[in-house]
Specification:
This protein is an alpha/beta fold. It is built from three helices and six strands.
């Protein structure tokens, strides 16, 4: 009698363990490659450019020379280019991270951070580039 109860309890416990382990199995995170043609300009961390502290982005991130950062227009945020998204920009060696937002009037636009190098920002100018990023599927 005691061994039958022990057997039933063991089977119930084994079943619960199997159910618990099945609920923790997750399918691998799928990522979807995105690309878009945007207008790209450049900015510096100078007091006369932007609003407030020139070394702090719209989300409060510190942006200092040497950081590969970009600002994005609001419409791009809704396409998956949220804070922290890694972005490849056609014509640039390094990958950039979204750390700032642009004023609401801009559409399909990024602003590439170039530290205090005003000459580099002016040399970049304004151009159309293709950008690439991934979003969870």
């Amino acid at each position: 009698m005691m061994s039958a109860r022990l057997l039933v309890a063991s089977l119930i416990l084994a079943g619960l363990l199997i159910l618990a382990s099945c609920s923790t199995i997750q399918k691998p995170l799928q990522e979807k490659q995105q690309s878009l043609l945007v207008t790209a300009t450049a900015f510096n961390s100078l007091p006369k450019q932007g609003q407030g502290n020139p070394n702090v982005g719209a989300w409060g991130d510190r942006i200092t020379p040497g950081v590969n950062a970009i600002a994005v227009s609001d419409d791009l945020v809704s396409l998956g280019l949220a804070r922290g998204t890694r972005v490849r920009i056609e014509g640039m060696k390094n990958e950039c991270v979204v750390l700032d937002r642009m004023p609401a009037r801009w559409k399909k636009r990024i602003d590439i951070y170039m530290g205090t190098d005003v000459k580099a920002a002016r040399a970049w100018g304004k151009r159309d580039v293709k950008i690439y990023w991934t979003v969870p599927d």
